[in-house]
Design goal:
elongated, Alpha-Beta Plaits, Aminopeptidase, alpha/beta, 6-stranded mixed beta sheet, 4-stranded antiparallel beta sheet, binds zinc ion
Length: about 475
């Protein structure tokens, strides 16, 4: 919108100068006409320049309209937009890193601190979003339409393009109010690709780079989730995903025969045992004793068995010699992975019944010191105290810290022992990440900027010692 009007303005000036050249050789009545036209053009161009610059909400909408949804995210366009935005704010420095291909840039924005020897503070936002099914949406997912009640509809509105803009707008506001503002610690913001597909070409590569080591990060703030009530949610750990395949082998036989230890019989026994385990875990949630993210979830995702027949169905009079089941298992950091592995080996897939299993560990469970991937949310962690007070100082209230049911880039920091919190200031908002009709209200977005102003000032000016 903004660059468009500049372009129009330039075209008007070109017409204006052409008319002036021609006016030297034409008659008086025409001159009057040209003067009127000139005046009109001047008025028009001054009206154009007087247009208010886009506000924070408009800039949020502009960013939402850049398609960074998988499978073809336009990362260069998103980085170019954010880079321009950061450069429009005094004192911010930017750097684009290419850790894999030119199509997957990573943008690093820096507000230098007065004491660069202190560990820095790093805020994160991923550039990508999950795909959307436009036919299931009430507004096109890339339109960023704002309805009368202020709801802005777009894929990424909650996850997590809001925080990408809020970080920068918060710094803009801090500097506008106090042009001499210089934090004690250096503040960095990184905009990374590929979080939604595991972060392997994004955060995983970044943390391995010298560029990252040079940042000397002491605290990491990442995305969180919306809260449906008046309190902000904060996350101190992620659950770690395991993909488990359980296989049963057995003697094949005629469909009419009864014998022990067929592959199907053994797999079905195993499915029963896993289902009971799942039920027990779920009961703890239903009884209100533990949150969803505090138990081990073990959800069956596929079953595979049977012998295909030529008509695309199954041979009905044969008991197959192989059968398998796939599970999506999520482990909270409080669970001992070795104990769970023992349970799988002893109960879910016992070798005594011709069963085997394979676990694909999709993420780490312990940090480099062998500790669970958990960030302390008590006074043993000075960063937590500063964060909590900063949210409260601007009138915000935090709900009980939670474990995130899914996984974020924060795990790459916790593995390195860097305290990390997940936080997106969206209260009184339905949780719509990865859902149809994802939206965020403009008032919630703007309030979030105020919250980040408080957090950024407090975290970057924190002079205490950290473990
Ligand atoms: Zn996200």
């Amino acid at each position: 919108m903004f660059s468009h009007s500049i372009r129009r303005h330039t075209q008007e000036l070109i017409i204006f100068s052409n008319l002036q050249v021609k006016s030297r050789v034409i008659q008086a009545p025409t001159m009057v006409y040209i003067h009127t036209l000139t005046l009109l053009l001047l008025l028009l161009s001054s009206a154009t320049t007087q247009q208010p610059p886009p506000d924070a909400v408009t800039r949020f909408q502009q960013y939402l309209r850049i398609n960074t949804a998988h499978p073809h995210p336009d990362y260069p366009a998103a980085v170019s937009f954010l880079n321009d935005l950061a450069k429009s704010i005094p004192n911010l420095q930017t750097r684009t890193l290419y850790l894999t291909t030119p199509q997957k840039p990573l943008l690093l924005v820096t507000l230098p601190g007065s004491n660069p020897s202190l560990p820095s503070v790093l805020f994160n936002s991923h550039l990508d979003s999950v795909p959307a099914e436009p036919s299931k949406w009430s507004h096109p997912p890339l339109s960023a339409v704002k309805t009368d009640d202020g709801s802005i509809f777009a894929r990424g509105a909650q996850d997590d393009k809001c925080i990408a803009i809020q970080y920068l707008e918060a710094i803009r506001n801090i500097i506008a109010k106090d042009p001499g503002f210089k934090p004690t610690r250096t503040l960095h913001i990184c905009y990374v690709p590929d979080e939604e597909i595991g972060g392997f070409d994004g955060m995983a590569k970044f943390v391995e780079s010298n560029d990252f080591k040079e940042l000397n990060v002491g605290f990491f703030l990442d995305e969180g989730q919306a809260s449906t009530n008046d309190e902000y949610r904060v996350f101190y750990a992620d659950r770690s995903p395991w993909h488990i395949v359980i296989k049963a082998a057995g003697q094949p036989g005629h469909g009419s025969r009864m014998f022990d230890n067929s592959a199907m019989e053994n797999l079905m026994k195993s499915v029963e045992i896993v289902s009971r385990f799942r039920e027990n875990q779920f009961d703890l949630v239903k009884a209100g004793m533990l949150a969803n993210s505090e138990v081990v979830s073990a959800n069956p995702v596929y079953l595979k068995a049977g012998i295909a027949s030529s008509d695309g169905k199954f041979v009905m009079n044969m008991q197959p010699s192989e059968a398998e089941a796939g599970y999506d298992v999520r482990l909270p950091p409080t669970v001992d992975p070795d104990l769970l592995k023992k349970r799988i080996a002893d109960e879910w897939a016992p070798a005594t019944r011709n069963m085997s299993y394979h676990i694909v560990e999709k993420g780490p469970l312990r940090d480099y010191m062998g500790r669970p991937l958990v960030t302390a949310t008590n006074d043993s962690n000075p960063w937590w105290m500063v964060f909590k007070h900063a949210v409260e100082a601007c009138g915000g209230k935090l709900s009980k810290p939670e474990i995130l049911s899914s996984t974020t880039d924060a795990r790459y920091m916790r593995v390195r022992g860097i305290p990390s919190l997940g936080f997106s200031p969206m209260k009184n908002t339905p949780i719509l990440l990865h859902d149809h009709n994802e939206f965020l209200k403009d008032t919630v977005f703007l309030e979030g900027i105020k919250v980040y102003e408080s957090i950024i000032k407090a975290m970057s000016s924190f002079e205490g010692t950290t473990p």
